[in-house]
Automatic annotation (TrEMBL):
PROSITE patterns per record: TRBD
Limits of the TRNA-binding domain: 13-115
Gene: metG_2
Record's protein name: Methionine--tRNA ligase
Gene Ontology molecular-function annotations: methionine-tRNA ligase activity; tRNA binding
Pfam families per record: tRNA_bind
CDD domains: tRNA_bind_CsaA
Organism from which the protein derives: Halalkalicoccus paucihalophilus
SUPFAM superfamilies named among the record's database cross-references: Nucleic acid-binding proteins (SSF50249)
Superkingdom, taxonomy of origin: Archaea
Sequence intervals crossing the membrane: none
EC number: 6.1.1.10
Entry-linked PANTHER family: TRNA-AMINOACYLATION COFACTOR ARC1 FAMILY MEMBER, TRNA-BINDING DOMAIN-CONTAINING PROTEIN
Amino acid sequence: MGIDEADISPERFLEDVEMRIGEIRSAERFPEARKDVYKLTVDFGSETRRSAAGLTDLYDPDDLVGRQVVAVVNLGTVTIAGFESECLVTGVDTGGGEVVHLQPEREVENGSRVY
């Protein structure tokens, strides 16, 4: 495994990508989707957004509620099987097809910007 992408400037990254900490308020199965994803409602403090997140292999929906996650909030809306996903909850592929979501090491205020 190597890092293949070309370098970009830190200023460009911070201008283009807005990541925020949000708390999962609800999580439910999404059988209508082609891929195995959950419908999430994520609280960012000043607003709540929905996300279709591929966190299904390691997490039960009830275990996700109350967890803080790192999400990209400025990608626009993507419609998946009629569901509007308004943010991208980030995760790491374990290599075995499982996705572990990224979260702060300790609780922080919902809506905090990630740098």
